[in-house]
Specification:
Helix content: 25-40%
Number of helices: 7
Number of strands: 17
Structural class: alpha+beta
Strand content: 25-35%
Distance between the termini: 22 Å
Oligomer: single chain
Largest sheet: 9 strands, antiparallel
Shape: globular
Length: 346
């Protein structure tokens, strides 16, 4: 398998590479109770393969004690909240002027801890709390980008294309998911995904009716879109055509991205970009990197967004981002409240 991750914007910079495609030297898998290891080496280094694999294993960090992180109290965010609401109002003016139908705005939160944050414990909590989502993590030796996403960008398997059109959000204290605003928002994503796929497939893409999809304490509207790829269509062609969908950028795509860039939209790590894999046959699956945190020592930077369309209420959109930030916050708090016994990982 080759693993890939990429940022929302082709010009984004930060601690992670803007885009990465990597074949692991040593790949461990656990599937349906069966465990395996796949060892890879460039053909030119075949004679030294065993020595390199041994060196890689020897360089694994020793098992460390992972203890609760002792989160520090968060600072007030009133000014930041007001600034974000002002951006929502600017987006609504742009939509009213006909410059876009939808704009996705994001906000971030910085969480500090008295001790080093333990990504392995955070991931363990996400796996427990987000069983309906795809949990993911990528580390570069210093930072770790992790999260739990409910949204598939695209899957290609034996010529069959599957994509998600996911939009609209509801939670315990919110309005009904089937309201007009959420239905309109989700329909924009369906329209854009089908249009993007059309040149790459043999027949018009088929879309299922929107159904509720649970993602932890959140619910979304999701349609499954399927098609048969043209023989010359690759997974990279599909990614290039689909990313970014209106679920993370806006609609129409070019106009929305131009507005976001002009208004200083910034996204951390690979948030709202993609993360996934491809196999030796060129098949693979890429998910949209949502509900994420960029972990660096004692700091976690969380990010969440909301889609602004005509009729959006900035206060409700702010509450939606809070509900989305709670996905990672809940995992951090669960780790923080664990008893102090150490657990080891290697």
């Amino acid at each position: 398998l080759a693993f890939t991750g990429f940022a929302f914007s082709a010009t984004a910079d930060g601690p992670l590479p803007n885009a990465l495609l990597s074949i692991p030297l040593i790949l461990f898998e656990s599937l349906d109770g069966q465990c395996s290891a796949t060892l890879s080496i460039p053909a030119g280094r075949l004679q030294n393969a065993i020595a390199e694999w041994r060196q890689a294993l020897d360089k694994l960090p020793p098992a460390k004690d992972c203890r609760p992180s002792a989160l520090l109290p968060g600072a007030g965010e009133m000014l930041a909240d007001q600034a974000w609401i002002a951006r929502c109002q600017a987006a609504l003016r742009a939509i009213a002027d006909g410059r876009a139908e939808k704009l996705v705005l994001t906000r971030s939160r910085r969480i500090e801890s008295r001790q080093q944050l333990a990504p392995v414990l955070i991931m363990s909590q996400l796996l427990r709390q987000q069983s309906d989502s795809l949990c993911y993590a990528f580390g570069n030796g210093q930072q770790v980008f992790l999260g739990a996403t409910p949204e598939r960008l695209v899957r290609l398997r034996h010529g069959q294309v599957d994509a998600d059109a996911l939009a609209g959000t509801a939670w315990a204290d919110s309005a009904a998911l089937a309201g007009a605003k959420n239905r309109h928002e989700q329909s924009l994503v369906v329209r854009a995904v089908c249009a993007a796929l059309a040149p790459l497939v043999t027949t018009p893409p088929a879309s299922s009716p929107p159904l509720e999809h649970a993602a932890g304490h959140l619910r979304h509207l999701r349609s499954r879109i399927t098609a048969t790829a043209r023989p010359d269509t690759s997974l990279f062609d599909l990614i290039a055509a689909l990313h970014p969908t209106p679920a993370v950028g806006g609609y129409p795509g070019a106009a929305a991205l131009a507005w976001l860039e002009a208004h200083g939209e910034r996204r951390n790590g690979w948030y709202s970009g993609g993360i996934g894999y491809m196999d030796q046959d060129g098949d693979g699956e890429i998910s949209v990197a949502l509900r994420s945190a960029l972990i660096d020592g004692r700091t976690a930077i969380l990010q969440a967004g909301a889609g602004i369309v005509a009729g959006s209420d900035p206060a409700n959109e702010l509450a939606e981002t809070e509900a989305k930030l709670a996905t990672i916050t809940a995992a951090l708090q669960a780790v923080d409240s664990q008893p102090g016994e150490a657990t080891g990982t290697r």
